[in-house]
Amino acid sequence: MDSQAAGRAKGGGDLSGAEDRGAVGRWRAVAPGRVNLIGEHTDYNGLPVLPIAIDRAIRVDFRVAGDAMVRLASPVVRFAPLTFQLKRPIEAADQGDWSNYVRAAARGLMEHGVELRRGIEGTVSGDVPIASGLSSSSALVVASALALLKANGVEVGRGGAAGGGAVAVPGRRAADQVVDQPAGASRGLEESAGRAEQAISRLELAAVMARAERFVGLEGGGMDQAACLHGVEGHALRIEFEPLRVTPVAVPEGWRWVVASSLVRAEKSGGAREAYNARARECREAVGGVGGGYRDLVAEPDLDGVLRRGRRILAPVLFRRFRHVVTEGRRVGLAEEAMRNSDMGRFGKLMVQSHGSLRDDYEVSTADLDEMVGIALEAGAAGARLTGAGFGGCIVALCEGGAVERVMEALAMRFYGPRLGGPPEGDVMFAVRASGEAGVGGHPPLSSR
Ligand code: GLA
Predict the structure, then answer these.
(1) Ligand 1 center to residue 192 CA distance, Å?
(2) Which end of the chain is more exposed for a tag (fewer CB within 10 A), N or C?
(3) Partners of 8 in beta bridges
């Protein structure tokens, strides 16, 4: 399959020809993972992030159920088949149970006022490595939500407000868009099954799913769900919060990202959860101490003055958390500017600074992640950093041309060789492209187009 076709199949943005399959047909919801390029641990502080949606996705192949039950299976042995009823309240299963992500999607939609009368039955599969900081869990939440919306005839449209309460009425058009689209990107309502009674915009859905995923216990921000629902091929995504807004930024020709796992799982619902939530609390406490909000502080022209104030007022640990957040907030703007100017050398340097700040001030890196960043840079990456929440998971390295292979070879030899006793497999290290958004299409035609 060529890369464009792969992007379509995985990103699922091109849905033409899928509308006539009706309630008895088979469907596929496809939701990409994401790699965050810069802006780590800023989203829950109301500051922007700059991720890409990637050409790896979670897929839900489903048919509409005759009742209000959700029945999904997975080829992964440790993920037992799940069954639950779409009836309020949707209770959580045991901590760590994968059904919680599907339950979160259903619960979030219902709490938002979407009537879910029909369930879905099918299988979940995908190639986003799990617990690696690439948002496989948010991709599962989004794919499940899209499947449930399709099963219940709810249209998913572009634009719209992200903070809205009730579900929009039929016929809402794209006039109130706040998503900035690159030239040539499609606009308007989409994915209609021809029998829609309700509609929800992608931005609303991203915000609703971000809230919903907290059901799993992580006080996450909104980056993952927004990136998954707004991916644009060849573009990074500047995502702002309160209100949610997504602006695609073109990635200059010839640049790729290598993603490499530290071989340590960072489970959102497991061990990393407490440490993550503790960081979120510390950030709130820090900004409460300094006064004002992070957004205003980052916008102050004299950032050094802001930091001096923080150092005077805050205890050392809180000050370090604070310094990470405000400097990272500043770096996102600078990185976006560098990308727009095709100055990827500068972009890479900002990634390296971001990693240093995550390591020293935010304390979410590990010795292995640090070592991998060092290896990638020595092998010719223009920049490298941990990506996602940290505490394990992956690094992302910015590479031009032949540096992709050189970086992968160096990591294989120096990092994986001693640990795995051989070359890493496909899910451990791979190059990614900025890819398209989540969507629903008829199945199987979508996969073979
Ligand atoms: C996790 C969360 C995101 C974000 C990152 C850290 O992936 O789900 O919302 O906070 O960590 O940047």
Answers:
(1) 31
(2) N
(3) none
H-helix or E-strand containing 201?
strand 198-201
Question: Is 33's C-beta closer than 6 angstroms to any atom of ligand 1?
Answer: no
Contacts of 28 (CB under 8 A, 6+ apart): 12, 59, 60, 61, 62, 440, 441, 442, 443, 444, 446, 447
The residues near 448 (Cβ < 8 Å, ≥ 6 apart) are none
For residue 223, CA distances in Å to 118, 211, 295 come to 29, 11, 16
Nearest CA to ligand 1 atom 11: 389
**Among residues 14, 55, 224, 361, which one is catalytic?**
224
Report CA Rg, the chain.
Answer: 21
- Closest ligand 1 atom, residue 221 Cα: 9
Q: How far is the CA of 214 from the centre of ligand 1 (A)?
A: 11
Task: Count other C-beta atoms under 10 Å from residue 303's C-beta.
Answer: 16
CB of residue 43 inside a 6 A radius of ligand 1: yes
Q: How far is the CA of 380 from the centre of ligand 1 (A)?
A: 28
Q: Is 66 helix (H, G, I), strand (E, B) or coil?
A: coil
Residue 377 confidence (pLDDT) above 60 = yes
Q: What is the pLDDT of residues 103-133, one digit of tens each?
A: 999 999 999 999 999 999 999 999 999 988 9
pLDDT in tens, 24-77: 589 999 999 999 999 999 999 999 999 999 999 999 999 999 999 999 999 888
Could you write out the DSSP letters of every residue in 323-374? Answer: HHHHHHHHHHHHHHHHHHTT-HHHHHHHHHHHHHHHHHTS----HHHHHHHH
- Digit-coded pLDDT (tens) for 247-258: 999 999 999 999
Q: Is 370 a catalytic residue?
A: no
pLDDT beyond 70 at 443 = no
